[in-house]
Amino acid sequence: MVQYKITYFDSRGGAELCRLVLKAAKVDFVDERLTGEEWAKRKEGMPLQALPVLTIDGSQVICQSAAIARYLAKENGLMGANNLEALRIDEVMEMFSEMVQRELIKIYMVKDNEEERNKLVKTFVEGPMKKYLTFLEMRLKENKDGKGFLVGDKLSLGDLAIYDGLSLLTALLVNVDPFEGRSLLKEHQSRVGSVPEIAEWVSTRPKTKF
Q1: pLDDT, tens digit (0-9, with 9 covering 90-100), for 109-167
Q2: Which CATH number fits domain 83-195: 1.10.1140.10, 3.40.30.10, 1.20.1050.10, 3.40.1790.10?
Q3: Mean pLDDT per 10-residue section of the chain, whose length is 210 residues
């Protein structure tokens, strides 16, 4: 049996989607969480000097969180039943990557400056957030009228990406409810969160803000 270790900091951040994939697939893994001091000592030896990394069988060390998540999904039947379903999953993955890089990182970087943060949040909520959430609702509705999962008849990486991405959005925006007036997204979030393996992980994982 393949042995996996995910190394990251003590937060959800860029590693959580990979953790969710393994939990959904019922695959055991080592959840290694580094302190700042530990990271300073090990940084030089990491690919691209960045986290997260996936260690496979104690030897292969792979970086880039989205690449890791896709690999783990493919290995465990969570990347769709065909290339078109995989494309739809990739589309959602890229959407969240765009949202984080273009919008959320700016908000996170000024989290200690309340005035500037509030300005950026207002701009995001009134513009880009509507565009992204409307897109997600459209894609969900295209499969079984939004009453199931993103693609096919079962949970996939796409559903986990939506669940993780909207959880991050909720935590970052604090006083903004991204699900307000969006029952389809709210129901999907509840559906994914009710998957036994996901529910158990969320209830027992280390409690962190992000």
Answers
A1: 998 999 999 999 999 999 999 999 999 999 999 999 999 999 999 999 999 999 999 99
A2: 1.20.1050.10
A3: 97 97 98 98 97 97 98 98 98 97 93 92 95 98 98 98 96 91 98 98 96
Tell me how far apart the alpha carbons of residues 207 and 210 are, in angstroms, rounded to a whole number.
Answer: 9
Q: Residue ranges per domain, the chain?
A: 4-77+198-204, 83-195
CATH architecture of 4-77+198-204: 3-Layer(aba) Sandwich (3.40)
Spatial separation of the C-alpha atoms in residues 162 and 182, rounded to whole Å: 14
The CA distance from 178 to 114, in Å, is 20
**Quick one: which of 85, 53, 47 has its CA closest to 68?**
53
Tokens of 16: 């959580």
70 and 79 Cβ atoms separated by less than 8 Å? yes
Q: What's the whole-model pTM score?
A: 0.96
Beta pairing partners, 32: 7
